[in-house]
Amino acid sequence: DWTMGAFRAEAIARIRDQVGAGRVVCGLSGGVDSAVAAALIHEAIGDQLTCIFVDHGLMRAGEAEQVVATFRDRFNIRLVHRDASELFLGALRGVTEPEEKRKIIGRLFVEVFEEEQRRLGGADFLAQGTLYPDVIESVSATGGPSATIKSHHNVGGLPAGMRMKLVEPLRELFKDEVRALGRELGLPEEIVGRHPFPGPGLAIRILGEVTREKADLLRRVDAIFLEEIRLSGLYDAIWQAFAVLLPVRTVGVMGDQRTYDHACALRAVTSTDGMTADVYPFDMGFLARVANRIVNEVRGVNRVTYDITSKPPGTIEWE
Ligand code: XMP
């Protein structure tokens, strides 16, 4: 894509201009925006960039490993991978209220990020994968309707308040352009085309109290759902697809044994911006196949439901 090629060259020149010999830190979340920002900045200034990946232990299956494999091993980007799952899960113990979960995760994320950054000896610039729609939103809205419904802590970006100059090379781009730039930079399709994922991760998809066991269970359910979606070639037609672990147990039967296990919900929606969404109309055969795999392969889950609520009045996430 020649447009993106031109943008890339210009953006690199601008980054070099802005940063000079300074040191830059960038938070990686596993999402597209921070990944593209990091790859672009690395191309501009190499080892003057260090990425910090604060791993809250609430990512989808295999994603934390993939962040490390991609950025450290393949792109040779300096990367601090901080496994902070003990810390996050400890702080979430006993917490059931969704906004409370978001606040705890958002606060801890900043604390851990700052700690890692101090450990690096500080930096002159903070890089963020801010996109054009984020810029518009923060200018026009001091809390639109959705902001009052869910606080949307975004773990990818960092709240201001950190006294560093910002490097935001994606500020003029829309999501599809960021994806095109990511491909141009050679980022793997799994990262570039990935469905959006909320900053608080699986914490808001485990209804009620979050534990490591529940997170492991949900990751397995979610991975089966996504695998079947990919195998059916439906991944790119869907805005977001994921599983939710419900705080209820139901009675089932396995062989000649009665079971009393978790119920889960599957959610898949189409959308253009996440503000409104429609349920994805899978055929029954697909859903039945996924449900069968889940109850047969994941011990501890014995019932699968499909959420058919549109947004509004529902939201995409359950919490
Ligand atoms: P809702 O559930 O409000 O979600 O319909 C709309 C979009 O936002 C994502 N989402 C979040 N993203 N931090 C985030 O970074 C959050 O706390 C959060 N809550 C929801 C959701 O996945 C969907 O794409």
UniProtKB/TrEMBL annotation:
GO terms for molecular function: GMP synthase (glutamine-hydrolyzing) activity. It catalyses: XMP + L-glutamine + ATP + H2O = GMP + L-glutamate + AMP + diphosphate + 2 H(+). Keywords: ATP-binding, Glutamine amidotransferase, GMP biosynthesis, Ligase, Nucleotide-binding, Purine biosynthesis. The keyword Nucleus does not apply. ATP binds at S29, G30, G31, V32, D33, S34, A35. Catalyzes the synthesis of GMP from XMP. Homodimer. This is GMP synthase [glutamine-hydrolyzing]. The gene is guaA. The chain holds residues 212 to 530 of 530 of the full protein.
